[in-house]
Amino acid sequence: MSIRGVNISIKGLGYRYSSRGNPTFSNLMLESPRGEALAIIGRSGCGKSTLLHIIAGLNRPTEGTMHFDDKKIEGPSSRWVMMFQAPHLFPWMKVSQNVGVGLGFAGWPEKEKAERVAEALKLVELSDYADTNVQDLSGGQQQRVALARSLVMEPELLLLDEPFSALDAFTRASLQRDVRSIAKRLGFNLIIVTHDIDEAVLMADRALIMAGAPGKIVHEFAVNLTDPRQRQDPAVQSMRARLMDAFHTAAQVAGAPAEEVAEEAGAESSSVSQHA
Amino acid sequence: MSNDAAPGAAAAAAGLTGTRTSRAAEAAGRGFFNFSLGLLILAVLWWLGGYLIARNPETQSFSGFGLVQTLQSFPELWNQGKLQKAIAASMYRLGGGLGIAIAIGIPIGIIMGRSKRFRDLSNSAFQFLRMISPLSWMPIAVFVFAAWDDSIIFLIAIASVWPVMFSTAAGLAKVDPAWFKVARNLGATPVQMLTQIILPAISFDIFTGIRLALGVAWVVLVPAELLGVTSGLGYAIKDARETLSYDHLTAMVLTIGIIGYTLDTLCALLIKRFSWHRGDA
Ligand SMILES: Nc1ncnc2c1ncn2[C@@H]1O[C@H](COP(=O)(O)OP(=O)(O)OP(=O)(O)O)[C@@H](O)[C@H]1O
Ligand SMILES: [Mg+2]
Q: Ligand 2 center to residue A41 CA distance, Å?
């Protein structure tokens, strides 16, 4: 199977919700190579969801540019798909119809659509539920349908906004493992926004720490671990501890008086973009 | 009561065994029982009223209002073709007016639901127009439209457009905005957004609005037909009164009730068919 990822290059990105208000973030740099799984972690309200919406093309940035490979990104597309915190399934459609909705938008013929939907349902282990009313599914099953609905598009980039935070620990663990392994197998990029340090360590190749107001990427952290990753594995545990330290250090820097933050964060993020 | 309900009690006993179908059957059985009993009570009261009127020498000439005479006049009305003609004329006007109300109400309702600016801008005007009694447009309608039929269709349309419009807008306002985000994210074009997301999401509210509109339209239709036109159920009532054929008059009133009830039930079935909401069985 061919690799379907993209080289992501984001430069000088800024966004403000209202023209008079403060920017949510400004002059943000982000580079991610083909096939990378990238985690973005940060305190509540620092602008992670906003950033993800912009990358997905759902909101227009107020400044800066985004390129996937050499293509400038200016709107939503089924090639970069976002999965939200809640499943947001369409209750008037059966499970299989929900999964196939994007292919329907793209005008796929019924037969090929049905085949791809069946594959996607198998991937999330819901083949037996194809004809079920989505309102009869558990929260975890619904989120797996949402995952299948995204995966069936065979996107080059899958954006995940705290996708598993509403699920129980068992479902969460298995989905974290599955999404990473599917992404690695098919070769697409992942960008995962999360509060959960464990999730970042289990799913990402690299973690970016976002902090401050306006938000910046203040630190980057390589998650050099072999797959499959087990939570109780000592290497995973120590990686987790180091990421936690890095997060607290970065958060302290961001929590310092405004001028200092700007300086420190500026220095850090320039080192990030040099590195990338 | 306990005797009448014996089948229901049997079904209830079956329900205790825990099967869902028997409980549903029991509910349906009870529904039908109540439906029939209600109509029966109404018929008995009517018969009793007719009986009292016929017995009293002072009111004897109005005995045509009675249940039996009314039912007996149906075959006559049918054979003369009066009933069919009146129904056809009324249904034509109802269909025309309601069709226009739906064709105008749904798109405007969708724009209202989607655009806060349009909602703010149009709200006072629409609320104002809505509160004008539909029949008070009659002189203006007669002035504007050459044909009586057209002015009645206009009256029905202007009376029934509001429920369709406001119900559509309210339905859209309740819709989870994330659905639009998800659809856009998966590459929906504006037309696909309308046909595959917006309309199915609010079909329940649209049909609820149409059901309300039908009720209003039906109420406006009959008085509108009392003026000017020489066809339709409203005219048939007026005609029967002028020829003192009270049995025909009541037969027409009964027909209005039956048709209204049937149309309303059809709407209720449509609502149920298109509803994805849980718990409004
Ligand atoms: N629609 C909006 N209009 C105005 N301001 C907004 C809007 N959405 C978010 N904000 C503000 O932008 C900032 C960033 O919000 P965002 O949702 O991106 O944060 P987040 O990092 O995803 O937080 P969380 O971890 O709690 O999800 C917050 O301060 C928030 O108040
Ligand atoms: Mg968020």
A: 10
